[in-house]
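Researcher: Structure prediction, please.
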Amino acid sequence: MTALGYYLDKPARKIREAVPRFVARDTRMLPQGRYVSICFDDFPKSAVLQAKPELDKRGWKATWYAAGGMMASDHPVHGRMFDPEDLKLLRRDGHDIGCHTYSHMDCVPASDEAVLRDMERNRAFFRKHRLPRARSFAFPYGRLDVSSKRLLMKRMPALRGVRPGIQTGAADRGLLKATGIEDHNGGTRLALNQLSALNADRSWLILFTHDIATSPSAWGCTLEDFTTLLNAIERSGAEVVPVAGMLSRMERRAPN
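Model: Predicted structure follows.
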């Protein structure tokens, strides 16, 4: 089955359940406070057009995971994807742009050599568009195995998955938890529940979605739901920081 076939045929819940717990970790202490990071995977142009203005109103920056090979394409699920002007706008406004491979590669069946070639193509893409080097990586489809995790832990400051949850006390930079804002999975319901539980001295909630539309894909959400979530974050008093910003704030400590 192709990566796209896997993506279309498997509910996100099933993908999450397929991700095992790994022994290899890179655990770092979180700074004092409550934090939220907002992410857009792939990322569709609708997210730039619809979500970015809502973030701008609040002075918030997000993390946008770019797969260079998807630029200016028409995706069968998410519609029109980002273009060069979107990258320029995000860079100008100080947003964080992360790596999502170049071809949106499923890292599980791919060889180490193929993953590294694809990653290098995306680094070249970042250089061409004058983007800062990505500080975090999100696995396409949320798919990873022991081999791909170990390979990429050596090459990226942080890896992000799709297993929902809150980083509390410390965060495993080898596989950050992230909660999907997904229309087929209750929209913002899980995110709102986790936001209300964000009450530890050191806690970090990462949220991600894809398209933002009136009739979103199963992996996206409506602008109304997205705005409701932003309002809840604002009321919570949590600080909104992109993933790269959180990595910079983490205290250095020996891995557990």
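Model: Residues 1-20 have pLDDT under 50 and may be disordered.
Researcher: Thanks, that helps.
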